[in-house]
Design brief:
Layout: H1 2-19, E1 27-28, E2 33-34, E3 37-38, E4 41-50, E5 53-62, E6 69-75, E7 80-81, E8 84-86, E9 91-99, E10 106-113
Antiparallel strand pairs: 1-10, 2-4, 3-4, 4-5, 5-9, 6-7, 6-8, 6-10
Length: 114
């Protein structure tokens, strides 16, 4: 019985950590500001639109000593970027811009990756 409980606890722990590795992947409109924090990573970004371009400015930081990196994934209609920071305390700033005449914004999410 103890073996079964331990196995279920391990499965629950792994499942819970997988669910916590990314922020929701919903489209963010112009003017959106986010400061997500997950286990092992934190970030801050702002989405602005000007002159038919969308800008995503911010930083991503690795907050845990492990073999993983903190990554911000920025997805637009035509492009994908992923600035990342590796090593506890490492912070990387980013400034991305995309042609976006319809002001659709971008899908931006924070995750922890190998």
């Amino acid at each position: 019985m103890r073996v079964i409980r331990a196995a279920l606890a391990a499965i629950t722990l792994v499942g819970g950590s997988v669910l916590m590795t990314a922020t929701p992947a919903t489209a963010a409109a112009c003017g959106t500001v986010r400061s997500p924090v997950i286990d092992g990573a934190s970030a801050h970004w702002k989405i602005t639109c000007k002159d038919q371009r969308t800008y995503v400015d911010g930083w991503v930081q690795d907050t845990r000593r492990d073999a993983m990196c903190a990554r911000v994934t920025i997805e637009t209609k035509d492009d994908l970027d992923w600035p990342q920071a590796c090593g506890k305390g490492k912070r990387v700033a980013f400034h991305e811009s995309y042609f976006d005449p319809n002001r659709r914004g971008a899908v931006v999410k924070l995750q922890v990756v190998y």
